[in-house]
Amino acid sequence: MADATYPHRWKRPPVLIQDRRWRLAIYGGGLVWLVLAIASIEVNWLRVYEGLERGWRFIEGFLQPDFTSRWEDISQGLIESLTMTVTSTVVGVLISVPIGIGAARNLAPTAVYLVCRAIIAVSRALQEIIIAILLVAMFGFGPFAGFLTLSFATIGFLAKLLAEDIEDIDEAQAEAIRATGASWWQLINYAIQPQVMPRLIGLSLYRLDINFRESAVIGIVGAGGIGATLNTAIDRYEYDSAGAIIMIVIVIVMMAEYSSSHVRKWVQ
Amino acid sequence: MLVSTPNGQPAWAQRSGRAKLALWAGWLALVALFVFCWQIMTKDTIWYFIYDAPRQAADIGSRMVPPAWTYMDRLWWPLWDTLNIATLGTVMGVIIAVPVAFLAARNTTPSPYIARPIALLIIVSSRSINSLIWALLLVSIIGPGVLAGIVAIGLRSIGFVAKLLYEAIEEIDESQVEAVTATGASPRQVIDYGIVPRILPAFAGISVFRWDINIRESTILGLVGAGGIGLQLQASLNVLAWSKVTLIFIVILATVVLSEWVSAKVRHAII
Fold it and tell me: Of A88, A129, A150, A245, which to mutate for an interface test with B (greatest number of B Cβ within 10 Å)?
């Protein structure tokens, strides 16, 4: 008799969305969007077919990269990118430290807090490329506009993370320093700075990494660096030089990532 | 630490003499590097343009307002294209990223010496190239248009999704896998019943997060000809129609903020 109540079949419960109606609505809506989206794309398949031969030439160019014939332009772009990366990271960090302190709830008065948070929000909402377009229009072509773009983008990134880190510090140490009668500057110097310094160094190195990657992109809109060289190489269908540039970028990014993770481990 | 002063009285200093010297040398090296880089970078800078910049900024600013609101009629279709580039690109990236992630995770990879390095190489090369550079390449290979944008977004997404997903797979609770294996399940069933339910929330969160980033990136892909609202931006910039540029910036900003809000809501609901 116990057989009648004992379930013999097991049905797998839904994993992600428990409510049946929500599940149907979300999956159904997603499906409708996909169908509409695919239906609305216009693809010139003939052009794509013709392009396959070029794609093959690009892969050939990538397998046999040509470092020598355009080396002058490549090295010039690379130097611009690297110097732009270093200077913009240094300046960006220098500006973002006071803004980060001002955007920390536990240190700054409300007025300062709001102003600093607004600066961070503006810097984070605008993408590097859009800032670069505007700054190139104002400051002319070349790495100086790129330097300003990357510095501006660094502020939003670093100040936000620094402010969050300051808000998360161990309050007991700040209180101990305060109890000695320390001034505000001494509080920052002896209670806050030792706690957040390892993370600040780590974040700066991470941002150095990001800035190099971005410097390869903003050149496309005229802000100097290796991106401009890459853009020219692709426009002239010199795929072997383009392959060489992309390879150099990948190697530098990998090296930067590898060494910065080592330095971060050593600092912490 | 305590150090003694010339008059023999112990005094407190934050750092020892040697640490102070090392710190000072470090700062000096950093400043020297900065000055050196600055010199090289500004070698070819035309300073006249930079002193002139505030005037230029005021000039452009005055042309940018008011935004050309009527131009909006011609932005709806590019906006739809932009959303499609982001969504279909994410779908493509996710479909390719899932097998790559399973090959790259230490606990599910079929061969740690052949498949895993290949999967990691795919992840690294996809991650180090920005989607705008992918788009630049693809536009010159398969021609300008939405398809180039979708493939560029997809290729860039593979590395991101696969990296976060394989880290999630490596962090799963092994005891559940063992329990499923103990029932005599085949390897396919182990993945289906032991691993997939564990990583599905993380997977959904990662996909939505990447979709949000992709919306942000797809708004500018048109600058190199890969479709979407960026094409309109490029066209307006070329003819210096700054009031249209302002409107496009506003539309891009609104789209980005909206997609960020949606993705934050969804991730909050999942996790």
Answer: A129
Closest CA–CA distance from residue A112 to any residue of chain B (Å): 24
Cβ neighbour number for residue B191 with a 10 Å cutoff = 17
Q: 């002193």: which residue's tokens?
A: B51
Full pLDDT tens readout for chain B, 271 residues: 556 566 666 677 777 778 888 889 999 999 999 999 888 888 877 788 788 888 888 888 888 888 888 888 888 999 999 999 999 999 999 999 999 999 998 888 888 888 899 999 899 888 888 888 889 888 888 888 899 999 999 999 999 999 999 999 988 888 888 999 999 988 888 888 888 888 888 898 899 999 999 998 899 888 888 888 988 898 888 888 888 888 998 898 899 889 888 888 888 887 6
SS3 track for chain A: CHHHHCCCCCCCCCCCCCCHHHHHHHHHHHHHHHHHHHHHCCCCHHHHHHHHHHHHHHHHHHHCCCCCCCHHHHHHHHHHHHHHHHHHHHHHHHHHHHHHHHCCCCCCCHHHHHHHHHHHHHHHHCCHHHHHHHHHHHHCCCHHHHHHHHHHHHHHHHHHHHHHHHHCCCHHHHHHHHHCCCCHHHHHHHHHHHHHHHHHHHHHHHHHHHHHHHHHHHHHHCCCCHHHHHHHHHHCCCHHHHHHHHHHHHHHHHHHHHHHHHHHHHHC
Which chain B residues have a beta carbon less than 8 Å from that of A47?
A: 142-143
Backbone angles phi, psi at B36, to 5 degrees: -60, -50
**B136 — contact with chain A (CB < 8 Å)?**
yes
State the smallest CA–CA distance between residue B7 and chain A in angstroms: 25
**Length of chain B measured in residues:** 271
pLDDT in tens, A71-116: 888 888 899 899 999 999 999 999 999 999 999 888 888 899 999 9
Separation in Å, CA of B6 to nearest CA in chain A: 25
In one-letter notation, the amino acid at residue B64 is M
CB B41 within 8 A of CB A87: yes
Cα B238 to Cα A134, A170, A221, B234, distances in angstroms: 13, 53, 12, 6
The ipTM (two decimal places) reads 0.79
In chain B, what residues touch A139 (CB-CB under 8 Å)? 49-50, 53, 56
Q: How many CB atoms lie within 10 A of CB B21?
A: 11
Asked if residue A76 lies in contact with residue A243, where contact means CB atoms within 8 angstroms, the answer is no
CB pairs under 8 A between A and B: 140
Cis omega (within 30 of 0) on the bond before A109?
no
Are A82 and B42 an interchain contact pair (Cβ–Cβ within 8 Å)?
Answer: no
Using alpha carbons, select from B193, B195, B200, B203 the residue that is nearest to residue B172: B195
Cβ(B30)–Cβ(A91) under 8 Å? no
Give this prediction's pTM.
0.82
